[in-house]
Amino acid sequence: MKKIILSPGKEQSLKRGHPWIFSGAIGSMTETPEEGECVAVYSRNNSCLGIGHYQTGTIAVRMIHFSYTEPVDGFWKRKFEKALYFRTMAGLHGKGNTNVFRIINAEGDGFPGLIVDFYNGSVVIQAHSVGMCRIIDQLAGVIRDVLPDNPVSIYDKSSPALKSKSGVKRVSDHLEGDKDETIVLENGKKFMVNWVEGQKTGFFIDQRDNRKLLEHYASGKKVLNMFGYTGGFSVYALSGGAGQVQTVDSSKKAIELAGENIALNFPGDSRNRSFCSEVFDYFRASNQKHDIIILDPPAYAKSIRSKNNALQAYKRLNAKAMEFVEVGGLLFTFSCSQVVSRESFRQAVYSAAIQSGREIRILHHLSQPPDHPVSIYHPEGEYLKGLVLQLD
Question: Is residue 196 part of a domain?
Fold first, then answer.
């Protein structure tokens, strides 16, 4: 295994359990590793700090273990078994009314750069690092071995996540089986998931608990679901007894899928109306106020360079939405941008609140569910932030 030696003092973050080594921390190498190759990391005094996947770029090494070991035999299998055990403890794996959950959540499960999602017997793998991409076939074998029932299909959807990575060309394809879609159950609600054509791995599993919270508040309410995508929040609002739901998304395909999911659960129900529109265009054309508004936009900041622009976008979006919340109504507002901290997001919403001139209370601080764990040593893994606000 090729050896990377850190500059003096640069080993401290690793000793604290942080899984990333930045390029500026590297002092020397015995040989230049290939993209995605597994390397051993040493301090200046020749103490081995662990092993990780090397890559060119700002993050030079993603650590997979914090001592020297060869990642062979049962190395990945043991990690996978541990992750699946936690999902079982959380009541997700084997739970009768939910058969969609995340098995591997990157750094949170000791698999930096890897996502594995379970959809009613099918598995979708997405590598975000070249190192994980290089061992996809090995990981697929582990999945076959560890899951109690062999998966109906295993689909590799790494291509979208790796398109900007140096020298990597990979076509998303089935590693086992040929299924492209299935109907899943989430808290007893039905959703059609297509992992080939859908965003991310096909469904935003991370909002499961937050959708359930909306259901609690929805009875008799007028609900507006912005950035509706597959209609997840809309289905839960209808399930909670909402009197009226409006689902808005700029994608015609998303609106059609949202309609399909609503019909799966509430055939013939006329309480939902869907609109294919940009959010601000919709607000400009509307004069209707709502009891509950959900704002779940895509990641406004993909890199630290775009963070400030993203915070301004969150401020503008929330300020506009606050104009359309009824007195005593609720605003569910989210950020899924990893580079935007919880405090920065709250500050953006705070600025929007000041602009609104309304009395506003925070009822809930929201995050991602237990199948999206965050390593306490890697706070960057807490990408999903949310607030439920009451506006008077």
Answer: no
